[in-house]
Here is the input.
Amino acid sequence: MKTDFSFLLDTLQRLIDTPSPVGYYVKMKPVIEEYAASLGYTVTYDNRDTAYIRVEGEDTSKTVCIGAHADTLGLMVRGVNADGTLRVRALGGINFANVEGENVTIHTRGGKTYTGMLVCAHHSSHAYSDAKTMERNDDTVFVLLDACVKTPAEVKALGIGNGDYISIDPRFTVTEAGYIKSRFLDNKVAMACVFSVLKLLAEQKIKPKYNTVFAFPFYEEIGFGGVCIPQEISEYIAVDIAILGPDSTGSEQAVTVFAKDASMPYDYDLTNRLIAAAERAGCAYAVDVFFRYGSDASQAIKGGNNVRAAAFGMGVYASHGVERTHLSGVENTARLMLSYILEG
Here is the structure.
């Protein structure tokens, strides 16, 4: 039993092209609602605008959750320089050396949008002797607006001000060799896997083994996407990117089951069941331990929820930058998700 992979890829590009930096759910909520409605599901929200899609199971005595966070890295306007460029603060783990030169969109509180680009204060080696060596951080990297503005007053006249959100262009592409390259594969690729699984369940009129809640939080990148979850949930599984680094055995072509993150080991029994589910589904998979990484599953434990926690996801290269994974890794992730929800 396979998900519709063409649908998954089309959905992935739509989700990636929809800006959703941490806490900015304005553009993404209608997209989630549209996909849900097209498949016959409804969306509910909690007070933090986490989106939920509930699917009744064969056994209604237990409720499990698949969490795929909807937020990405981004920026926020914190001031205007004398020359009309915008000072910014990071939303999530931005690497400023990685985003220099990238195009951005400013989303004003009044509903207007403007484009610009991220530039270093000493942006050109022809003009500055330390252009190559200046540290890139939120004191040296600014937004250069695509508008004829040279003063703070002119910027204010556009309706741009402190607290406005800034999204970064993703640059999505799929190569002939099957590699997917884009910003924000973390975590739009997991969201796309969720919708492909929901599509299969709807079209084939299949129920999951247990009541299943699919959750889309908007605050994972700052550490509390899964802190508050519905009380009926007994298992919380985060589907997120798997880090590829010196100690990892995973790959871009495989799905990784997380044994531990930076703060805690994941539940022993639930992790074993995910491994068994991967084997049943014939997935290429690995089991890895992560040192500088966390997920909504561990955040759910920290929030005091009485749940078993686990996590899995496709191997992704160059996390929090222009990331790369492979079609095979995405397919293996969707297959593991389906195996878990159908058989537990």
User: Anything to note?
Assistant: The chain has two domains: 5-72+184-343, 74-168.
